[in-house]
Amino acid sequence: MDTATSPKTAAKAERYEYYSRISAENMTPLWEVLSALVPPHPRTQAKPAIWNYRQVREQVMEAGRLITAEEAERRVLILENPALRGQSCITQTLYAGLQLILPGEVAPAHRHTQSALRLVLDGEGAYTAVDGERTTMRRGDFIITPAWTWHDHGNEGDQPVVWLDGLDIPIVRFLDAGFAEKSEDQTQRPLRPEGDALARYGANMVPLDYAPRPTDPTKVFVYPFARTRESLKAIAHGAPDTHHGFKLRYVNPATGASPMPTIGAFAQHLPAGFQTKPYRSTDATVYVCLEGAGHVKVGENHWRFEENDVFVVPSWHSVEVQAERDTILFSFSDRPVQQALGLWREQRL
Ligand code: 1HN
After folding, report:
1. Measuring from atom 8 of ligand 1, which residue has the nearest CA?
2. CATH 2.60.120.10 residue spans of the chain
């Protein structure tokens, strides 16, 4: 039969002619896109990816010769998911970047509705100030600047300092809920001495009249790595969890919720030689190796990782980690958002 005039082809041609007519009214047929709209399981556009710090460190330093922190406002190389180039995101919902601050520089004070975390990777002597209190940035420290908190950074030491930024920029962009404001003061005047928030809110106590709402971010804006590391080492007895090793989540100590409502953060210790069983969850996760080295399999990708390497596990991709040495991984994801909406799922494979 002549396919050009078969009844099936004629019906299709009639449909397409119809689609083009309704398109003029900004309408489109659901039945052509339905299965893509409600897939049987997450089909993310994001791809697994890794950034080897050893390979990119020199390019981060090069930015320090091209632009000042003040001129840039924030001197950051954005880590873009290779399948989402141009969108400033490392996953569908999260942004990540490597920020450099040189000795003597300041990154001026501002605030925005986006929430941010920092994970200190390289160098010493910098500080971040959050709502009037400074914290000295030490390697592995997990520091947060919750939504609408004033924050600025400075480097009063003699070494370049690099940290990983993680922000909920794509989430806030999706919701069209972004606001930002620059401070008149480049650098915030300290309102409290360093360590005040940790003493008031991070020592298993809170001020007498402190009654946070369940979604309030924590007042503890720094989780020193020395403490995290001590806990991870102290719980490493008995059998590690088959899929996670010895893994803890960071919390707002006053509520038990995640430190910020949009980003969850985790730290895990994998003893030397330990291999995790494959695991997947719906929260695309950014991992950073703080100590040790090993191999990771994400979906069909195999990589070796070492200290300061950053890798991404997209939604519903299986992840398996093999630790060559005693290894500590930091990770963050949008899990609290998915849990609040009743969407989060995980599977131990
Ligand atoms: C920001 O405020 C910082 O404060 C870093 O260090 C990265 C990316 C986009 C928007 C704001 C910072 C950022 C950012």
Report:
1. 167
2. 49-348
Instruction: Output the pTM of the full model.
Output: 0.96
99 lines ligand 1 (CB under 6 A): yes
Nearest C-alpha neighbor of 104 from the set 154, 153, 67: 154
- CB of 117 within 6 A of ligand 1: the answer is no
List the structure tokens of 167: 């922000």
Is residue 247 in contact with ligand 1, taking CB distance under 6 Å?
A: no
Q: Which residue has the tokens 């001129």?
A: 71
Rounded distance between C-alpha atoms, residue 230 and residue 157, angstroms? 26
Ligand 1 binding pocket includes 76 (Cβ within 6 Å): yes
Ligand 1 atom closest to Cα of residue 110 = 2
From first to last of the 349 residues of the chain, give the pLDDT tens digit: 455 578 899 999 999 999 999 999 999 999 999 999 999 999 999 999 999 999 999 999 999 999 999 999 999 999 999 999 999 999 999 999 999 999 999 999 999 999 999 999 999 999 999 999 999 999 999 999 999 999 999 999 999 999 999 999 999 999 999 999 999 999 999 999 999 999 999 999 999 999 999 989 999 999 999 999 999 999 999 999 999 999 999 999 999 999 999 999 999 999 999 999 999 999 999 999 999 999 999 999 999 999 999 999 999 999 999 999 999 999 999 999 999 999 999 999 9
* 289 Cβ closer than 6 Å to some ligand 1 atom: no
103 near 157, Cβ under 8 Å?
yes
Q: Is there an atom of ligand 1 within 6 Å of 168 CB?
A: no
Q: Whose CA is closest to 296, among 50, 45, 46?
A: 50
Q: Residues for the chain: how many in total?
A: 349
Architecture of domain 49-348: Sandwich (2.60)
